[in-house]
UniProtKB/TrEMBL annotation:
PANTHER family: SUCCINATE--HYDROXYMETHYLGLUTARATE COA-TRANSFERASE (PTHR48207)
Official protein name in the record: CoA transferase
Keyword vocabulary terms for this entry: Transferase
MF (Gene Ontology): CoA-transferase activity
A Pfam family per the record: CoA_transf_3
């Protein structure tokens, strides 16, 4: 708990979303101080509550009904259970929306119209409302009615075409990223859109509808790969851990494992060569500049691999860090949370939980000096705050 001022103090958010992209946005807004009320299905709740194992255990060590997945995107919120298929439930949600500054939802296109909870209806009732819709393919276009999931979008949006081992290598083939990155990125874009819309509303009094599509976000976030394609006329391909524009910038074997070498400029390459005892490489016209190294990648990488296996990962990291060459280990998650930098930054946090007492989590990475992120609540139990929220927001008695 903290008494520091909150960046979004006074902002009310009605979160009708579930799974990851929408809840990630809601959690970020809640971390920044917004009062986020999550509306869930009675008896079931957010889909991710059942996406286990693993499951949370209560204070007595007994397994609860909530999967670990749910806890990654729902802290600092309050949970209300309302059946929106019931007319009385629809009326309650409409009343909550009229008290809110922001509504988040990720139903299929048109899915909330039958309940009178769509953006057109609610914006007509409250013109200053910020209404954010997250779907797989957006509100328009030939795919608008399709359901969209992160894995599907990683494939359709091009990410898997540049992720995985290169053709001709053992294990070659397209590969998804190890987390639902498209959902996460969509949640971040949604947060930016909501904050921009709130700033617009504060200036003009005008609310608006935000239309976010996972496919749009995935294509937008291919960054240099799309630039390489659109400007360079090339179709990027899978390269394993190698980089299409920088060499050497990938993993290398060591005497006891592997390490990452991330050489960002010619000066760093020269320093690496000195540490490796191969200063002649930095003077070789094939390797002297990054452009030359990219062109002669197939010749350079085997030479580097022959050199890196001569020392342990720790020995390389100590030597290269002292020389100012970016490098690092490839950590498992247990090693991540044991890393002294991760510990110093306080990335593992402990949150309160009604049944478990406490539950571990990961800190919000935003560090604000005047209005810091706060962790007032752990992820809520299903319907834990129904009576509280209806009383506070609507004046409804027991």
């Amino acid at each position: 708990m903290t008494t520091s001022p909150r960046a979004l103090q006074g902002v009310k958010v009605l979160d009708l979303s579930r799974v990851l992209a929408g809840p990630w946005c809601g959690q970020l807004l809640a971390d920044l101080g917004a009062d986020v009320v999550k509306v869930e299905r009675p008896g079931a709740g957010d889909d991710t509550r059942s996406w286990g194992p693993p499951w949370l255990k209560d204070a007595a060590g007994e397994q609860t009904r909530d999967a670990a997945y749910y806890f990654c995107a729902n802290r600092n919120k309050r949970s209300v259970t309302i059946d929106i298929a019931d007319p009385e439930g629809q009326a309650l949600v409409k009343r909550l929306a009229m008290e809110a500054d922001v509504v988040l939802e990720n139903f299929k296109v048109g899915g909330l119209e039958q309940y009178g909870l769509d953006h057109a209806t609610l914006l007509k009732m409250k013109p200053g409302l910020v209404y954010c819709s997250i779907t797989g393919f957006g509100q328009t276009g030939p795919y608008a009615q399709r359901a969209g999931y992160d894995f599907l979008i990683q494939g359709m949006g091009g990410l898997m075409s540049v992720t995985g081992r290169a053709d001709g290598e053992e294990g070659a083939g397209p590969q998804k990223v190890g987390v639902a990155l498209t959902d996460i990125l969509t949640g971040l874009y949604a947060t930016v859109g909501v904050l921009a819309a709130l700033a617009h509303r504060d200036r003009t009094g005008e609310g608006q509808h935000i239309d976010l599509a996972l496919l749009d976000v995935q294509v937008a976030c291919l960054a240099n790969q799309t630039a390489n394609h659109l400007i360079g006329g090339m179709t990027p391909r899978r390269m394993g851990n190698a980089h299409p524009n920088i060499v050497p910038y990938q993993d290398f074997p060591t005497a006891d494992g592997d390490m990452i070498l991330a050489v960002g400029n010619d000066g760093q390459f020269g320093k690496f060569c000195e540490v490796a005892g191969k200063s002649e490489w930095s003077r070789d016209e094939r390797f002297a500049t990054n452009a030359a190294r990219v062109k002669h990648r197939a010749e350079l990488i085997p030479l580097l691999r022959q050199a890196t296996v001569m020392r342990t990962t720790h020995e390389w990291i100590v030597a290269l860090e002292s020389a100012g060459v970016p490098c690092g280990p490839i950590n498992r998650l247990d090693e991540v949370f044991a890393d002294p930098q991760v510990i110093a930054r306080g990335l593992r946090i402990t949150l309160p939980h009604t049944m478990a007492g406490t539950v571990p989590g990961v800190a919000n990475p935003i560090r604000m000096s005047a209005s810091p992120v706060a962790y007032d609540r752990g992820p809520p139990m299903l319907g834990e705050h129904t009576a509280e929220v209806l009383r506070e927001w609507l004046g409804v008695d027991a």
